[in-house]
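The authors assume throughout that readers already know how a fold can be written as discrete tokens. In essence, backbone conformation is discretised, so a fold becomes a row of integers matching the chain in length. A single example would do more here than another paragraph of explanation. For illustration, here is how one protein appears when written out as sequence plus structure tokens:

…
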Amino acid sequence: SFKKALAGLEQALSRELPVYIFSTVGRSLLDEVPRFAEFLNTEYHGIEELILIQLIRVVGDALDLKEELIS
């Protein structure tokens, strides 16, 4: 869950470990990306990078995510 992820983030940062955040992003979340990045930057100092991963279609995928594709 998001709360558990934040707890792990806090633990890693408190131990001065290098932290890289990987997050998938789709069309419905694009508007939230700036707020999410600002939240991480403001609340969790020491994060090395925020890496955004665009959703892609996979042959034989179980879910139809074509509406979430950015391009």
About this structure: The mean pLDDT is 92. The helical segments are 2-14, 33-43. Strands lie at 19-25, 47-54.
